[in-house]
């Protein structure tokens, strides 16, 4: 029995199936963790959604920004990413409602205490412990699954508060948390979000660092963190973080990591067209 974490698929169904074949994945015994962004930009978002859903309890996926973009398009009619979207086939499918109801009930953060590992799509706030991060995720999940989902998802495109504070309103806190879980890359030395930078470490504006390098972040030394989202970072391994988005949709690789307690992961990759 193995636990595999897989980076952002983004509608690249054929590389995903090749990766699973290479892993000798057994749906009866193994578990797949997906770091989010199952859909968009790639050629087969509909097939990807249907397949991952069909895996049932053998697949655990957290929500990414492209997954939320699909939900926003469905629930609120909002489309902001222009002609690079490849979501029309999903939105026109006969089983669209069922698929997106399944998708909106996916978590924003997953924890497995047996292997002391959590998974998010993008990152964690330096102001939160792991327990606090899980609490914020559950509050957001309740909104995404409830009657106010359209409001939350259509407002997610606005600029979020840069820093966590007790003075933020309830919706500002939710907006901040959603940005952290699904879009975060860099943070400045005062703990403020820097959302405009998308390049690899070393290309960012002065005074900012990758979110996982913020000194004295409250989540440190509590759990190993698996994440995706950052294709220009690529697969990265430290003792406390494992990054898995290796840019499959951009012609890179689709990467899986075998997760074991207190052991470095072993990586499996396939090339993507």
Describe this structure in words.
With 273 residues, the chain is α/β, with parallel strands linked by helices. The protein has a single domain, classed as Metallo-dependent phosphatases (Purple Acid Phosphatase, chain A, domain 2). The chain has helices at 13-23, 45-54, 65-76, 88-92, 96-104, 130-144, 149-155, 170-183; strands spanning 3-6, 31-34, 59-61, 109-112, 117-120, 186-188, 193-194, 208-210, 224-227, 236-237, 241-243, 253-260, 263-271. Helix 6 packs across helix 8 (170-183).
Give the CATH superfamily.
Metallo-dependent phosphatases
Chain oligomer state: single chain
Strand content: 15-25%
Distance between the termini: 30 Å
Q: At the third CATH level, what is the topology name? A: Purple Acid Phosphatase, chain A, domain 2
- Radius of gyration using CA atoms only: 17 Å
Indicate the CATH architecture.
Answer: 4-Layer Sandwich
Got a strand count? Answer: 13
* Bulk shape: globular
Can you list the strand order of the major beta sheet?
3-2-1-12-13
Number of domains: 1
Helix-strand makeup class: alpha/beta
**Level-1 CATH class name:** Alpha Beta
Residue stretches low in confidence (pLDDT < 50, at least 5 long) are none
Helix content: 25-40%
Query: How would you sum up the major sheet?
Result: 5 strands, mixed
Contiguous helical run count: 8
Instruction: Calculate the mean pLDDT score and round it.
Output: 93
Secondary-structure element pattern, one letter each: EHEHEHHHEEHHHEEEEEEEE
